[in-house]
Amino acid sequence: MTIVYERRGSGSPLVLLHGIGHRWQAWEPVLDRLAEAHDVIAVDLPGFGSSPRLATYGMPQIVTALTDFFAELGVTRPHVAGNSLGGALALELAAGDHVASATALAPAGFWTTPEKGYALSVLLTHRALGFLPRPLVTPFLKTPKLRRISCGMLYGRPEQLDPDVPYDDLRGLRGGRGFNPVAWASRGYRYTGQPTAPVTVAWGTKDRILLPRQAERAEALLPRARHVRLPGCGHLPMHDDPALVTQVILETTAA
């Protein structure tokens, strides 16, 4: 299948994988920084952004689509970094020995059933807001104080965002044709792999979607991985602290 992507920089390949309902632009705050060291390939996952949907969804199907994509690009064992759904995919790729290293930012799959239901309900609520007319949404994004109130579930530091960023993210949630099938396919998902490549699992201390206590489960299940806390960051740490996220990813790729 055709996967849409943005490519910048040169060096060893680094593939960036966004979360459910997002698109490659999730990585804009760190893309150019990472491109100083790597050939960076930020993808629209199947059914999100401009990439077409898969016929069938499940973690194995998405992993296969990505490994086929690597082969089409002529990229062998790239480094990979992912957020949320993309973090789980990064770990699955590492467990399958498809990548040179994996950085997982708040990866899905270390949840309990109630925590998973909570996370999806929060994202579904934000997705519903994406269907509202822009004049009803933008007043809640105009000032730092209003962004703290309206966007605090997704970002740890929403006051520092350009107001267009959370609005575009809501529109991305709305347009994600793969959202419902991915959410449905995730109902029984738990991460159970054991990566062979260097792995870093990083979690924002203010993540209100995949709660930071899930980081403790990841640490117990992946004792050989490096585990990092991202102070003050929410579920989308690339926006909250681009310099720190860049540092964490580059330390992993250097390993």
UniProtKB/TrEMBL annotation:
Signal peptide: none
Domain AB hydrolase-1: 14-246
InterPro entries for the chain: AB_hydrolase_1, AB_hydrolase_fold
Molecular function per GO: catalytic activity
Gene3D superfamilies, alphabetized: alpha/beta hydrolase
PANTHER family tied to this protein: ALPHA/BETA-HYDROLASES SUPERFAMILY PROTEIN (PTHR46438), LIPASE-RELATED (PTHR46438:SF11)
Protein name: Pimeloyl-ACP methyl ester carboxylesterase
Organism annotation: Longispora fulva
